[in-house]
Amino acid sequence: MAVLCAVLLTACGGGDDSASAKPDLAHQDRFLQDYVQFLNTSDEDGLAGLLDAHPQGSKDARARIKAYGGQDWDVRWTRTSDFADVWKVDITGNAGAKNRPVRVTETITWEKEHWVMTPLPGVVPTPPNAASTEQPG
User: Fold this and answer.
1) Which H/E stretch holds residue 117?
2) N or C: which end of the chain has fewer CB within 10 A?
């Protein structure tokens, strides 16, 4: 009976399952596969659900569909990490019947057991007097 209770607690999110709090790159791959699928189908609601871990997820989904939606991406990705729980993901490949090149770089972090993408520029308002993150031209 005690084993059954422990299994039920773990399955429902209870208990101390510290392994689930660690980032899993196979899970990140599934996140990215879903991301590309939602873009290819221009599924704004699905993409908003995927990006809901940051406060501007629905606005960011709308901006991403506008920028990249419906382009029939056939892509792969590579990632590097210079900081704990932060990855730079380079997405490359082709788009559509004309095989237009795709090259997009995303920053993805692992926060509170969720993958979070940095919103596209302009989605989140910049606070007044904030330092710029743009490289000098």
Assistant:
1) strand 114-117
2) C
Number of domains in the chain: 1
Q: Return per-residue pLDDT of the chain as tens, 137 residues.
A: 444 444 333 344 444 444 457 899 999 999 999 999 999 999 999 999 999 987 789 999 999 999 999 999 999 999 999 999 999 999 999 999 899 999 999 999 999 999 999 988 888 776 666 565 566 65
What is the number of helices (H) and of strands (E) in the chain?
4, 4
Task: Determine the structural domain holding residue 85 and report its residue range.
Answer: 22-117
CATH number at 46 reads 3.10.450.50
Distance CA 117, CA 29 (A): 13
pTM tops 0.85, yes or no:
no
